Amino acid sequence: MQRRDSNWCPRAPGPAARLWLACALAAAAGCPSPAGSRPAGAGGPAADPAPPLGDPPAGDPSAPGYAYLTAIEPALQGRWVTFLDNCRLRLPGSHPLNDPSLEAAVELQIAPSGEVVARDLTRASGNAEFDEAVRELVEDVRQVAPPPAELLSDDGRAHVIWRFARDRRQAGAAGAAVRRVVFPPERAVPLWIERGDLAEAARRAATAATPEAVAALVDAVAEAAVRAGLSAASPEARRSAVEAAAAGRVRAVADVLVAMARGAEDLALRAAATAALGAAGGADAVPVLVELVREPADEAQRLAAAGALAALGQGDRVWEAVAPRVAAGGPDAAGALRALAAAPSVAAVPALAAAVATGPRARRALAAAALGAALP
To answer: How confident is the model over 305-352, as pLDDT tens digits?
Structure first.
């Protein structure tokens, strides 16, 4: 059933608005409008109006975005039918506005909220009044159904081309289409990352022109993915992100790893973030790791920090941090010796050799393990 919007008319003061107003006034008065106040031919009911156009033809349900186009069709088709009916019923069949070959098209730019943020007449009909009626109609359409994410272009908007025809096609969804606005990958990938659609960002990164460009964009996507994981509510998700940061050597997230190593409530997560700094932290992480060897949250974190320093080629810094504990031989010596086993240091060999010869058996065993790791 054809839907009409009987409340819509073109807005004054354009020619299309004057046409509608002249027709409406003439119909209400039952007489012709005053000469000069309307376009030629406008007046009361046409002597022999053409039959109604009926419903517009159905489109192809498999066409890209067709379900969305049918969802926004009522906002456009109903108002357009009102205009066409006024032309059919109030103007002679020979009037230029009743020419069935007239056709115009408008591009609507629709934000994710459904707000129509831009309108552009992309195809003119050649009839100024017809085109102005189209412009005025789409200007009055401010809000439509929010577009699904898969229809958004690289600029974050859905671009819909909508046809307005004078024949049976009218303003039906069958004559509309979704247009994709595609930016170069170097411009598109950061935009998709900003919107949180990392899958699309990764897909676009793979289309870059050179291997170097692909690698740089993939690194950006990886960084965004890791950052998203590190801020997740689930400890498991954060731990997986920490592992990904280490495996991918994503140094851009070192600041997040440092904060996590120092302040995460989950001690296992602290240790994991500390270990990841060995791969993703770089030289800037060394002072933090030395600090965590000296004053860890627990022994697991001390071992993780020592291992990270060893991975960075900074085993001697571990020895500097724990030497006083080894020399003191107190309760903290065992943890210090385990750290030295994880981060061998040639500088520690004399002290370790002495520790092997004296002290409790368990501590001597730990010293022997550290010494074995440190010897060339």
So the answer is: 999 999 999 999 999 999 998 888 877 889 999 999 999 999 999 999
Q: Is residue 198 part of a domain?
A: no
Q: Could you give the 3-state DSSP secondary structure of residue 244?
A: helix
Residue 11 contacts residue 140 (beta carbons within 8 Å): yes
The answer to whether residue 25 scores a pLDDT higher than 50 is no
Query: Is 199 a domain residue?
Result: no
Phi, psi of 235 (to 5 degrees): -60, -35
| Integer CA distances (angstroms), 136 to 79, 184, 290, 370, in order | 11, 34, 69, 82
Q: Are 33 and 42 in contact (CB under 8 A)?
A: yes
Asked whether residue 206 is assigned to any structural domain, the reply reads: no
Q: Which residues contact residue 186 at a Cβ distance below 8 angstroms, ignoring those fewer than 6 apart?
A: 208, 213, 217
pLDDT digits (tens, 9 = 90+) for 244-267: 888 888 888 999 999 999 998 899
Q: Give, in degrees to the nearest 5, the angle at Cα 275 between 273 and 281.
A: 80
**Residues 153/181, Cβ–Cβ less than 8 Å:** yes
Which residues 6+ apart lie within 8 Å of 313 measured at CB?
none
- Taking the CB of residue 231, how many other CB atoms lie within 10 A of it? 11
* Number of structural domains found in the chain: 1
CATH number at residue 87: 3.30.1150
Can you give the residue range of the structural domain that contains 25? 15-179
Tokens linked to 116: 């129509």
Q: Which token pair is 368?
A: 């022997």
Of 129, 169, 103, 102, nearest to 41 (Cα)? 129
First CA to last CA across the chain, in angstroms? 89
pLDDT for res 328: 86
Q: What are phi and psi of 106, to 5 degrees?
A: -130, 140
CB proximity list for 200: less than 8 A, separation 6 or greater: 192
* Distance of alpha carbon 274 from alpha carbon 38, whole angstroms: 80
Q: Give a yes or no: residue 256 inside a domain.
A: no
